[in-house]
């Protein structure tokens, strides 16, 4: 019961903050709402026995990625006039309708009880250390060493690319992102 | 029997490569030497293999030359291989022979053209492709040649691209041909799908064909109809003939070679080659015959009132091709090929003759500004006259034998009917009329050109007149290989082709038709005489209106009034003639041309282009350049597909 | 314990290190030698091809890295497209990119490495990373002309739509993972089949997974309706990068599609989702791509944009072979992509050379090119005619195989449509040829081509002619790839 | 314990909100953030499935997705910086030089 209350609490915050995020005109506020949403999602991760990844979610997303966003916003020194004027009401309504349809379709799919014993009911109990650092790490560095190593290349590419793009040619030395 | 058949197309390919790669670095003499020698060598090798073929017994007249496996995908097995049987031997000789003559002619005709080297390069590529087409031993390789000749036709029609009409005409030819090619490809796919092969040896084996197709079944009808669509594109039949009259924008030797003698007959060749399949689809045969005869009379009637000398010949070509298809449609494939051959001679000659005239007239193509050229250009005139006599079917010349064969077969064959014969006969009359109209307007009467042109009128140089003479000889004697039984011959041409026409002899109906043909000797003779008489009448009519009375009809009205009418008592008779016969013909012809040709058929094809183009424009606003539109469309795409899947899945 | 057969990824590792070396070398030589780094890059790609020949065949990393014929075949295509893209970009880096030349080539190589990993992926996670590793360098490269407003805009559009589609793809992959309980593609097939047997139907969730994965890969393929980015990005990006996008990146999409749909979901082509299996969905999208691509291309005035729409149409033709899901189908798709490499890279190489010399991309400015540069015009004509499928150029054989596979599999309507739209396509290809050959008034432009670009053009033309006349070796190689799926 | 279906529907909801953000917002930064949200919605589904199937692979998957998201964000932000320097705007609707 308590689980369910926590779930609903976190879920409402996660979705509510997400909605607020996309409603903002000021990206700084958006970033903050996204942080709230992600923290709420981290709670849900914990409920799913994903302690380690939940922690990473907060550390990587809020700690690194979103800070990067904030940093860029500050760097560009964005003001109101950069964000554009008002949208047409019709356009907005139709786009909301589109996403509502998307959501309805997805719900319809998840509600379809093709595999009831697996999706519909509670999950079976799992091992004590499910989702622990050791377990994830042993998977990551043994079975999944290969994709893990690939991410290193990916990050290197991102660094090179960000430097190349964001660097001002000839004027300043370095200004990496 | 295995022989190095590749030698036939090899030389034009070498010529093409030499001239193409060294473009702009060779002198004119060298270029023409390379081009003409290569085609000449092809012809010589063609002759050699032809005699090799003749030395074989009737039933085994096949020379093969397998080169290598082109397409090796499992059950898909297509070779690059050549096949010389009586049918392709005839085609090879016609193609390489006529090409050689026209190559020689071109040396003179194109002498002062800036694109001399380019011209011969394209021409050699054309000969190569055309030889591939006729020598191929499977449909796919044939299609390669088919596309190759289309490409060369495009390049050569648009040769004088400074004229916008020329480059437009080239593009039109290319696109219209592609519509036909679409049919050909699809028909080919069906044949492959059903028989498991594209080799003529397998796919056109009556035993194989009968084992996979039901006679008159939907599949064989679809396949043959689709291939016929391909033939209508390449051979300019209704509804895809529209490109051919426009194709006259190209140099005249090109019109002679590609758009009269060789390429446009590829469709006839293809159908004759596939006779086994066509004979199994009676519905298609009817379509072929009807389209053929309809095209014949339709194009013939348009030709009646054209004033551009080349356009008359272009519509005449369409009309004559209609004859060939009629022949195929009534199961007289050999007659179709026979006419193809004689037509290649006399129509090439007509075009070359007109080229000689145009050359002398400094590019003038309108017959209203010609006249009286007989004295000025005697060789051109005489050869042109021979060709005209041949095409109108005067007894003793080549056209007579082949045309008469077709008319007789369309009357007597089980696939034919008296209506087809009748329309064919009327077309023959029309042919006589417009051809002699052309001759009279061009070579007889007053010299209507301006004085400047008149001063420069000259007979063409030897390099042009000699080819004309050779073709004239061929136009006379070309028919003697196929003298019908009724005139005491034994139709050796048909006999020669017989091993290829397996479809005709396989079906009982065919045998029956042949047998009945032999019996109705007197009917055949009567019909023959009838058609000759009709032709003679129409020639007289042409004479009457365009020589005897052109002065009366034309000048009278302008200069003199009532007095003259009375002096020339015949005036009223002429008026009557004019009102009853000529005017309706001219008006009707113009009407057909303006309404059906230009407005409906051409309009339809152009309209399609415009509609598709407008659709293109209509699609553009969606590509608004705005990022959110793109993401929205992306997401909507996902949602819609998901929705469809959920509803139907 | 997992088997780490490092031998098999030697080519990838080498190429990755070579990319780093190129960047370092460029920095080390103070960016003074643009030509040299270009040739070094080309040499590195060629060396990778040799290594690929030496080290292939087998699986590594727990079935996550498969060095099978399919991977090998497509890696050749990737290396070829990178080679040709680099070869045609010498003038561009000399003129337009003053800094970061090494990074330009480095990123091209990174993207190529990504494609190679993608082609070998036997498992969803590495497939996803491979896809990202392919795409992210291309985001950067598309925006590489930093002062050019349209290049930056192209980069932005590519990035936003790319990231968006990648999120949708990820959601689809998560569903596949959830339903099958594994990320290994072969295990996934088995588990899904077991699940199907146990529960008598997997139902809508798998359909959603299929649609979402299709959207994600459809983005890479520029399959309608996921194609909206393509014309804009193709037009705005540096031309060699456009070429890489249209060939390498697209081939990467094709191989990812094969890995997931043919290898992982083939069992469900009819049994479960009848009547709407993925084959039918993809067939409809392919039809839409052919119609929309060909028709939109008709009125384009910019050559790159025209080629973009043409490549949308081309992928429609490729998908005809794909939905056949047969030995000939897979083989024909491989062959098609291989030939497409020559034709499209060649056409873009000409566009690059032309732009370098004249600064223009408009089709109208090609007027009269045949007089000033007969060789390049002839090459361009060959590339375009091959794209249009005129025999005996290889494009014809490629189309023929694909359509034959379609007919064989019963998609007759699709083949008829494909043939019809191919008629339309000729119109816009012929239009360029008409411009080059049959357009009179033009101040003559003499095109200067660097040696490397000439090499690229000659490779393209030679490939089209040789493999058009004698397709056997490539076709056998391509049909070999089909054996991976055990038809 | 909570039924896994709850988590899936929640992830669907987050996914839809993220998608809405991408197609509604004109601010490039918010677009990018919405994409991050969509990635996280997928992550949530993966974690839920991982729990359902009792296999920890999903956690590895999510871990790697984080890296991908970071890379995408870095490059995306770099491009935004560049386009801001070029055009003095981060309004997505302002960038339509390439069209038709």
Descriptive notes:
The complex is a heterotetramer of chains A (177), B (649), C (487) and D (100). By secondary structure, chain A is mainly α. Helices cover 73% and strands 0% of the residues of chain A. In chain A, helix 1 runs antiparallel to helix 2 (27-47) and helix 2 packs antiparallel against helix 3 (51-76). The longest helix of chain A is centred in the middle third of the chain and has 26 residues, at 51-76. Chain B is built from 30 helices and two strands. Residues 507-512 and 566-571 of chain B have low confidence and may be disordered. With 487 residues, chain C is mostly helical. In chain C, 72% of the residues are buried. Chain C is globular. In chain C, helix 14 runs antiparallel to helix 16. Chain C has a domain at 277-487. Chain D has one domain (4-89): Helix Hairpins, CATH 1.10.287.3510. Chains in contact: A-B, A-C, A-D, B-C, B-D, C-D. Chain A binds chain C through residues 105-106, 108-110, 112, 114-115, 119, 142-147, 150-151, 153-154, 157-158, 160-161, 164-165, 167, 169-170, and chain C through 1-2, 4, 16, 23, 60-62, 64-65, 98-100, 103, 106-107, 110, 113-114, 117, 123, 125-126, 129-130, 132-133, 136-137, 139-140, 143-144, 146, 155, 179, 195, 199, 201-205, 207-208.
The gist of it:
The complex is a heterotetramer of chains A (177), B (649), C (487) and D (100). Chain A has 177 residues and is mostly helical.
Oligomer: heterotetramer
Biggest sheet statistics of chain C: 2 strands, antiparallel
Overall radius of gyration of chain C: 21 Å
User: Largest beta sheet of chain B: what is the strand line-up?
Assistant: 1-2
Helix-residue proportion of chain C? over 70%
Topology overview:
The complex is a heterotetramer of chains A (177), B (649), C (487) and D (100).
Chain B: H1 7-21, H2 28-55, E1 63-71, E2 78-84, H3 86-109, H4 116-135, H5 139-157, H6 164-195, H7 200-203, H8 206-212, H9 218-234, H10 243-246, H11 252-261, H12 266-273, H13 275-279, H14 282-303, H15 309-329, H16 333-360, H17 373-376, H18 378-392, H19 398-412, H20 418-443, H21 451-456, H22 462-477, H23 492-497, H24 502-506, H25 508-519, H26 521-548, H27 550-559, H28 562-567, H29 571-619, H30 627-648
Chain C: H1 10-28, H2 34-54, E1 58-60, E2 65-67, H3 69-87, H4 90-95, H5 101-120, H6 124-142, H7 149-180, H8 185-199, H9 204-221, H10 229-236, H11 239-264, H12 278-298, H13 303-324, H14 327-358, H15 369-372, H16 374-388, H17 394-408, H18 412-438, H19 451-469, H20 472-482
Antiparallel strand pairs in C: 1-2
Helix pairs in contact in C: 1-2, 1-5, 2-3, 2-5, 3-5, 3-11, 3-14, 3-19, 3-20, 5-6, 5-11, 6-7, 6-11, 7-8, 7-9, 7-10, 8-11, 9-11, 10-11, 10-13, 11-13, 11-14, 12-13, 12-18, 13-14, 13-17, 13-18, 14-16, 14-17, 14-19, 14-20, 16-18, 16-19, 17-18, 17-19
Chain D: H1 4-24, H2 28-53, H3 57-87
